[in-house]
Specification:
Length: about 425
């Protein structure tokens, strides 16, 4: 792995704990700002360099939203560089443990995921000399505070990085706005602080976001989302159904009995997934509710004689998922249902043209114009006009992103 010269801010992250640094004596470092701004990689290296300068035979923690994300964002790129620099690393995957050695010193690094309130119990009882939180704003406060409480060794330090969220977020209020009171060294990053990004790459990232998400992920500001969830989906954003043949088909389902049910039929052509048809049933308007079997028959009607490779369904619709499985004709997967991340992925997929909505999908088009953010101060869309929006999000998060090999597999069937 080639390491390019560090920017001034990256160099400050690498050296903040050194005796000749103006920030020496701080108890923590906080780096926030734009996506792809180079804060994560230099922080992870600095964390390891500091632990070996200061400690031997001690325990540390690296925390991500999940263990998988911690390995992807921190561990994998960091270990490649450490080995090039002469460190020895033994990975104990079953224990989520790294044993790192350098010039006779050995330290242990435990990997944790802080995805929900129950995660706090995982780290209880440990004694740590330092902890690094990757994307700390995505973690519950209880987990972060439990991990901080474990750092009882003299000289221990806290390391935080994140992209901005809404301004009422607990981490922004408690740590970033009170960095001086917390005796923390705070640095704000933009993409220009990452020397590995070219001007063309920065422009490409800038084109992927608009509105509040542009302010957050490009400008690195802690702002509240407002207005339309997909403000760029206007007249002219929708396309005609392309002529076949198509390489494969998939279906996404937001299931409802009292609330509307939305089924989307997707077709792959030239690396683009088109929403070529849909079924939308509103029991309140129709005056009756459909049973699982009736919804299943509607699903078959939508599919017709096409060979559908995969169907993803709202994970809370257990009875409908079981109905599909019991018939044994279709492959069904419970959808990934992380709302905010799913909206981000869907927004990027729409802007990059990896998915396109066809003009005959009238209910999707109607919901794009009505789907809005709540004004209650948190990143939550209003639970209205969201059924086609949810099934589109399920498709992106579960099939387009969550199962990247599906397209190639289905095309060979």
């Amino acid at each position: 792995m080639e390491i390019k010269p560090f920017s001034n801010k990256q160099y400050r992250v690498l050296t903040w704990w050194c005796k000749n640094s103006p920030s020496f004596g701080k108890d923590a470092i906080i780096c926030d700002g734009a996506v792809r701004s180079g804060k994560t990689f230099c922080m992870s290296l600095s964390f390891v360099f500091w632990m070996f300068y200061r400690f031997n035979n001690s325990s540390f923690a690296i925390c991500g939203k999940t263990i998988k994300s911690a390995r992807r964002n921190i561990i994998t790129p960091m270990l490649q560089t450490l080995r090039q620099l002469g460190f020895s690393v033994e990975e104990k995957l079953s224990q989520n443990l790294l044993i790192i050695s350098y010039r006779g010193r050995v330290n242990r690094v435990y990997i944790f995921g802080g995805k929900d309130e129950s995660s706090a119990s995982l780290i209880q009882g440990m004694t740590l000399s330092g902890v690094l939180f990757d994307e700390v704003a995505l973690m519950p406060r209880s987990f972060v505070e439990q991990a901080l409480a474990r750092c009882s060794v003299e000289g221990s330090r806290f390391w935080f990085n994140c992209n901005p969220e809404y301004p009422a977020h607990w981490f922004y209020r408690n740590w970033i706005k009170n960095a001086d009171k917390k005796n923390a060294f705070y640095l704000h990053f933009t993409m220009k602080d990452n020397p590995s990004l070219s001007k063309d790459t920065i422009k490409r990232y800038e084109s992927l976001y608009s509105g509040s998400f542009y302010e957050r992920f490009i400008l690195g500001k802690w702002v509240a989302v407002s207005g339309a969830v997909y403000p760029f989906m206007k007249d002219g954003s929708f396309v005609k159904v392309p002529n076949g043949p198509f390489e494969s088909f998939a279906v996404s389902v937001d299931y409802g009995t009292v609330n509307p049910a939305s089924f989307g039929l997707w077709a792959l052509k030239d690396d683009v997934w088109y929403r070529i048809d849909e079924m939308y049933f509103d029991s309140r308007k129709e005056g009756y509710q459909k049973t699982d079997e009736e919804h299943y028959n509607s699903l078959l009607e939508l599919i017709g004689n096409r060979k559908v490779g995969e169907i993803t369904v709202d994970p809370s619709a257990a009875s409908f998922i079981e109905t599909i499985r019991r018939h044994g004709e279709l492959n069904v997967t419970p959808a990934v249902n992380d709302v905010l991340n799913g909206i981000r992925l869907t927004s990027t997929a729409l802007k990059e043209g990896r998915i396109k909505i066809c003009e005959n999908c009238k209910d999707s088009i109607r919901e794009f114009s009505l789907y809005r953010w709540s004004e209650k101060g948190m990143d939550t869309p209003i639970k209205e006009n969201d059924h086609a929006m949810d099934d589109i999000r399920y498709f992106v998060a579960t099939i387009l992103e969550g199962n990247a090999c599906f397209s190639a597999f289905a095309a060979r069937r």
